[in-house]
Each structure stands twice: as structure tokens, then as C-alpha cells.
Design goal:
Helices cover about 35% and strands about 20% of the residues. By secondary structure, the protein is an alpha/beta fold. Helix 2 packs across helix 3. Bound molecules: adenosine-5'-triphosphate and magnesium ion.
Length: about 250
């Protein structure tokens, strides 16, 4: 199993008036989009490398980003990973917000940047809506996104309906890589319900915060076969083994 560490991030905004996406509306911690040359963005490249090694591409991959409990950094990790994969330019990448209890993809990408119309919940409830109608291209990042909203209906029933699986099957045909932001594993059954359609899980834990016991329970529930690796998120400079070497290295080049 691979372990990737991400440092706590304070990113500087980079603006480009030519781009269709309003970069000022992106969460400044989306370093894969805003600061691709940074140390922080390199941590997501390492995650991409680890993921590609663990999950060779003989067809498209569907990767879920999850965590034992809420607030560990799933959404930021998922978007930064998707951005890193999309940067290569060879892969068609789709990001799906399947955390129906706390959808937040639209918020971090900026409401002005993503489809304000239909999303995942709408397409689950109305079979006439296709994946194409709910996937929103994020230009010029070579990435499409499916956002979500908090539903009135029971999230378990929505995900168990089979329609979510159909949409993901369609996504496999159209994209090389699908990154799914999911709810945390322990407080709700939703993440486990998705397992049938997921090729591999990346588990995000908050460095120095997530109790080891909860991580062990998460491993046991998801089963080791599908766990691609662990991300220690929000690691401080002090805890980062390579951070100071990296800075010394990049300042000389
Ligand atoms: N690498 C990071 N650097 C700095 N802050 C971070 C980092 N990762 C997460 N955070 C902070 O933690 C908060 C939670 O992050 P995020 O929304 O990605 O977590 P989550 O696991 O998706 O949460 P939820 O379970 O509520 O969906 C963010 O608002 C952000 O402030
Ligand atoms: Mg989230």
C-alpha cells in the first residue's frame, strides 16, 4: 500500500483572463489547478503515480476518495487528484460528487464555474436525464464534473436504486478515469453501498487527528483488496519528512 502526505496549504491565486473557468472562484487550496508547480501540487502527483501503479489502466478506472469520519479532506483531495490526472491531457477525467449528505464539489469549484442546473440527484430521480446532460466541462482543465445537491429523499435509497450504478457504467464508457467524492465510511452506510461500482478506494486521514482504531475499522469494512492507499492530509511542515529538502532543491534549480 502507498502512503502519500499532503502539507497544510496556503495557495496564492493565479489568474488567467483567457481561461473560461473563473480561477478566482476556485477554492485557493485547489493547488493542482492554481499552483501546479508547487510542493503541494507535487504531493498530488505522487498520489496519482501511486494510484496508477496500484490500478493499471486496462480500461477506465473508477476511484473513490473516502475517509473514516467527516472533515478529513476528502473533497479537496478528490478535486486536486482529478486536476492532476486531467493535467496530463491524455485522459478524459470525470469528477462525481456522490456525497449526497454533504455535497460540496460545487462550492470548492465555485458556483460560477459549474453547472447550476441538473446534478447527480436529479439524474437518479429522473432516468430521462443522461450523464451528458449532468456532466459539466471545466475549461481549460480537461475535466468534467457532476455536482450534487442535498436531496429531500433518503440518500441510502437513492444510491441503492441501481440508477447510480447505471450512470457510473456510462461514465466508464466515456471517460478514462472517474474520481468519486464519497461520504465518510463509519458514520453512514452510503460509502459501503457504492463499493460494487468502485475499483479502488483512496482513504484520507487527517494527520495527527484520525484515531488509529477508526482507520482499522474502515479497513475492515471496505476490505483490503480495494484499498489503493492512504493520504495523510494536513501534515504540518514540521511533520513533513521531505518538505525542507524539497525547498532546498527547488531554490537551487
Ligand atoms: N490539505 C489541506 N490544507 C488546508 N486545509 C485543509 C486541507 N484539507 C482539508 N482542509 C480543511 O478541512 C476542511 C474539510 O476539508 P474537505 O471539505 O476537503 O473535507 P471532507 O472530508 O470532504 O469533509 P466532509 O466529510 O464534510 O465532506 C476544509 O474546509 C479545509 O478548511
Ligand atoms: Mg466533502
Amino acid at each position: 500500500m502507498d502512503v502519500v502526505r499532503t502539507k497544510s496549504m496556503t495557495a496564492t491565486l493565479v489568474t488567467d483572463s483567457e481561461a473560461a473557468t473563473d480561477r478566482e472562484d476556485l477554492d485557493p487550496r485547489l493547488v493542482s489547478f492554481l499552483k501546479p508547480e508547487s510542493f503541494e501540487a507535487d504531493q498530488y502527483r505522487m498520489l496519482r503515480y501511486a494510484m496508477e501503479r496500484a490500478c493499471p489502466s486496462d480500461g477506465s478506472r473508477v476511484i473513490a476518495i473516502t475517509s473514516p469520519i467527516s472533515g478529513d479532506g476528502k473533497t479537496l483531495t478528490a478535486v486536486n487528484l482529478a486536476g492532476t490526472i486531467a493535467r496530463g491531457g491524455q485522459s478524459r477525467v470525470l469528477m462525481v460528487d456522490a456525497d449526497l449528505r454533504r455535497p460540496s464539489l460545487a462550492k470548492v469549484l465555485g458556483h460560477s464555474n459549474v453547472h447550476r442546473g441538473w446534478g447527480l440527484v436529479d439524474a437518479i430521480l429522473d432516468r430521462r436525464l443522461s450523464l451528458e446532460q449532468i456532466a459539466w466541462p471545466l475549461q481549460p482543465f480537461n475535466l468534467s464534473v457532476v455536482t450534487s445537491r442535498r436531496p429531500q429523499a433518503d440518500t441510502y435509497e437513492l444510491l441503492a436504486s441501481g440508477r447510480f450504478g447505471e450512470l457510473l457504467r456510462d461514465a466508464r464508457q466515456r471517460y478514462d478515469c472517474v474520481v468519486v467524492d464519497t461520504p465518510p465510511v463509519l458514520p453512514a452506510p452510503d460509502s459501503r453501498l457504492l463499493a460494487e461500482w468502485i475499483d479502488g478506494y483512496v482513504i484520507v486521514v487527517a494527520a495527527d487527528k484520525t484515531p488509529r482504531k477508526l482507520l482499522e475499522e474502515t479497513f475492515a469494512l471496505l476490505g483490503p483488496a480495494k484499498i489503493l492507499g492512504l493520504v495523510f492530509n494536513r501534515e504540518s511542515y514540521k511533520g513533513s519528512r521531505y518538505g525542507r529538502y524539497y525547498y532546498a532543491y527547488s531554490s537551487r534549480s
